[in-house]
Automatic annotation (TrEMBL):
InterPro entries: Gfo/Idh/MocA-like_OxRdtase_N (IPR000683), Gfo/Idh/MocA_domain (IPR050984), GFO_IDH_MocA-like_dom (IPR055170), NAD(P)-bd_dom_sf (IPR036291). The keyword Zinc does not apply. It comes from the Bacteria. Residues 5-120 form the Gfo/Idh/MocA-like oxidoreductase N-terminal domain. GO terms for molecular function: nucleotide binding; oxidoreductase activity. This is Gfo/Idh/MocA family oxidoreductase. Pfam families: GFO_IDH_MocA, GFO_IDH_MocA_C3.
Length: 339
């Protein structure tokens, strides 16, 4: 085994670039190659980030010098791309949302287990120092038993209807792109979900442009989550207990501070800086698990991913949002890879 973990990136869009930047900030990681359906796009990518350019996804996943594959394509492509990498014998870190629906996710998890290969959803916020500090504070009992989580994430998307955020063929909508973040942390903090109540504004292209969600968790807590492509929301997350609350401050998914406010009025702010663009922490975890021979991360288990996909399936059922993948597993006309 080499000193550095050799990564292959599948896709050349915005999120792939962010991941490539994170690899530069991870001491024991190296970008080995980038795969695209357009060699010119892969060449351009490698000129900026390094590695070998591959003119197909198949060539990338079969490259002998690639240890782990990061899938950074649009949501509807995740199923076929992850399956391709697993069939080639490579461990996979797949960008959220893991798949379009739970049925697809179950098939991929089963395949990874059959082949004894590492597979993890790239829910990078699960590995941020801020969330670790929140867990420490909650576990200390300082704010009492946690009863409620409130989280939102949203911005005004200034894009046309063909953009992936609004295009149903590309898995568009606020829920899969934004809502998954507050939902994931709410479940991480309050546990499994018993009931779901959701409402949404469906836009002219047929995807949800903003969605509000109320969850009741099996442990007795409640969470209120919202996401929007229409409004710039505060994008904060608050965990409230009987004796106070903890707030992951503005843009909770990138926050470098958390604030504790107790019922007696005493407050303090705790610094929680992260490395690089924040993705480094999930890279470190994926590499740790892969080197240890694990097939999943204890911080983002297969069960976590499947449960969250199930919750989002129910939300989509309630708001009337469907995608092609809900009736067919693989698309005969794959969307563009730009994410």
């Amino acid at each position: 085994m080499t000193d550095k973990v050799r990564w292959g990136i599948l896709g050349t869009g915005k999120i792939a670039k962010a991941f490539a930047s994170a690899l530069k900030d991870t001491p024991d990681a190296r970008l080995a190659g980038v795969g695209s359906r357009n060699l010119a796009s892969a060449d351009w990518f490698t000129r900026e980030f390094g590695g070998t350019a591959y003119a197909s996804y198949e060539d990338l996943v079969h490259a002998p010098d690639v240890d782990l594959v990061y899938v950074g394509t649009p949501h509807p492509m995740h199923y076929e791309n992850v399956r391709l990498a697993l069939e080639a014998g490579k461990g996979v870190l797949c960008e959220k949302a893991f798949t379009v629906n739970r049925r697809q996710a179950e098939e991929l998890v089963q395949l990874a287990r059959e082949k004894n290969l590492f597979l993890m959803e790239a829910m990078w916020t699960r590995f941020l120092p801020a969330l670790a500090e929140v867990r420490r504070i909650v576990d200390s009992g300082e704010i009492g038993t946690v009863r409620q989580v409130n989280a939102d994430l949203g911005f005004k998307a200034e894009f046309g209807p063909a953009h992936r955020l609004f295009n149903p063929v590309l898995g568009g909508g606020a829920l899969l792109d934004l809502g998954i973040y507050p939902l994931s942390i709410a479940v991480a903090l309050l546990g499994p979900v018993d009931t779901v109540l959701a409402h949404a504004d469906i836009g002219p292209t047929g995807v949800d442009e903003q969605t509000g969600i109320l969850l009741r968790h099996s442990g007795g807590g409640m969470s209120v989550c919202s996401c929007s492509l229409r409004a710039r929301l505060p994008s904060e997350l608050t965990i409230a207990g009987e004796r106070g609350h903890v707030r992951m401050n503005t843009m909770f998914y990138r926050t470098q501070t958390v604030t504790v406010v107790r019922a007696d009025g005493i407050a303090r702010t705790v610094p929680t800086p992260y490395i690089g663009n924040g993705y480094v922490h999930e890279v470190i975890e994926a590499q740790r698990c892969w080197r240890a021979g694990l097939i999943e991360s204890p911080g983002m288990t297969h069960a976590d991913t499947l449960a969250l996909m199930g919750v989002m399936d129910e939300i989509r059922r309630q708001i009337g949002l469907t995608y092609d993948a809900d009736s067919t597993q693989l698309s005969s006309t794959p969307p563009k890879e730009n994410e």
